[in-house]
Amino acid sequence: MKISFKNVMPQHLADVQHDADSIWGNSFQIEAQSKVVLNASSGKGKTTFTTTLLGIRNNYSGDIHFGDVALKSLSKEDWATYRSSKIAVVYQDLQLFPELTVLENLEIKNQLHKTFSESELQNMLDELGVGNKTHERCANLSLGQQQRVAIIRALCQPFQWIILDEPFSHLDAENARKSLALIDRICDQEKAGFILTTLGDFYGYNYQVELKL
Ligand SMILES: Nc1ncnc2c1ncn2[C@@H]1O[C@H](COP(=O)(O)OP(=O)(O)OP(=O)(O)O)[C@@H](O)[C@H]1O
């Protein structure tokens, strides 16, 4: 499913001066299965971009399409279907359930879709260095540990795109690289793409598309 932007301009950014190669006000397509990075400093509009793409923000001019479908035409029910089967998300505030354990947080989503076995979930937690936290309440995890759990939870569904808003902001470079490698691998398995916003460099990763604000 390709994503097309046509002259998109969020209302609150309309009076701001944008660079000529900014995504705002320009038209472009992102091909299905692309690995996409948007790297920009704080306050430049990364969350505006992700929330617009996720239909949370609708106060913009221009149009965004998933395939041939205009986002502005999607009903709440349509969005529920997209979110459960086509678009996975890691929100900046993660939206984990703090009173539930790591495994319970994962299983809430995983059991709906039967995506992974419990041992596969444990292997992913091990791979991201939080394998000793499986039965810990999420409230007791550091923010960087919670980010890794939120990434794994987002992968526990079928998807064509995974959209991640600053998912590595509390991770050191080594853990960011491991998380990115996992996202990259599962995207390949799912024949999906990712769109990832970041504050910093990109850990040597060879992404395919760079978006600018
Ligand atoms: N609803 C709104 N009305 C007016 N201005 C807004 C609104 N939402 C965001 N802004 C402004 O738009 C700009 C971009 O905000 P946004 O949250 O998208 O930035 P960001 O790049 O995600 O920042 P950070 O890296 O700090 O999370 C900021 O200047 C912000 O103050």
From TrEMBL:
Any GO MF annotation of the entry: ATP binding
Record-level GO cellular component terms: plasma membrane
InterPro entries the UniProt entry points to: ABC_transporter-like_ATP-bd (IPR003439), ABC_transporter-like_CS (IPR017871), ABC_transpr_LolD-like (IPR015854), P-loop_NTPase (IPR027417)
Pfam families: ABC_tran (PF00005)
Alphabetical keyword list: ATP-binding, Lipoprotein, Nucleotide-binding
Domain ABC transporter: residue ranges: 3-211
Family assignment from sequence similarity: Belongs to the ABC transporter superfamily.
Name of this chain's protein: ABC-type lipoprotein export system, ATPase component
Organism per entry: Lishizhenia tianjinensis
